[in-house]
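Late entry, evening session. Most of the bench is empty. Finally got around to the prediction I had been postponing all week. Sequence below, unchanged from the version circulated by S.P.
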Amino acid sequence: MTFNSCDIGHPRLPGATHSVGNDGFDLVAGGTDIWEVADQFHFVWAPVDGNFDVRVRVEFLEAGHLYTKAGLMVRESLDPGSPHFSHIVFPDNRLRNNNSGGHESQFRLVKGGPSKAIYPAGGTKEPPQFPVNYPNVWIRLSRKGEVFEASCSQDGSKWGLFARHEQALPSRVSLGLAVTSHEDTKTVKARFRELSL
């Protein structure tokens, strides 16, 4: 499968992609966020038709900001306000809004519409239900028709379902790895390994 890379939403600081072997990528990303009505981030993606099941190990995510994000994303288009569904991880397990762990699912239902988050069922309870423990942070995104599932693992074999989400997206979508700094004047680095689609 051939992957493409680009910046979405014209971040002030450009991102970069470096391929590592047959199943890994190192990303550098700027951007203000993946949230609200439009996104700014770096994206490594491939066009995919129909159902899929993709997984990857996030080996490292630089802590540029409390809300620096990296993860798997499916988008209707490369427009900044495109509908999407994603499962992202944060650099650590500090409290964030309704979330005590390092995982979160996010989506936008309509172009230019608001973004929403799916938090862990345990909310802000400690210890978190879905912690991040780099370099062993595994995430998974699957599609069956209009049903999307996001799962997490600490070893790549035993998975826990984080979210099940229903959303109408076209059969052909852009699927890949997304990273945003959440700081307009700063880039961050992320390392993805063992990508399987």
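Two things to note before I forget:
Residues 4-196 form a domain with the Jelly Rolls fold (CATH 2.60.120.200).
The radius of gyration is 15 Å.
Will write this up properly tomorrow.
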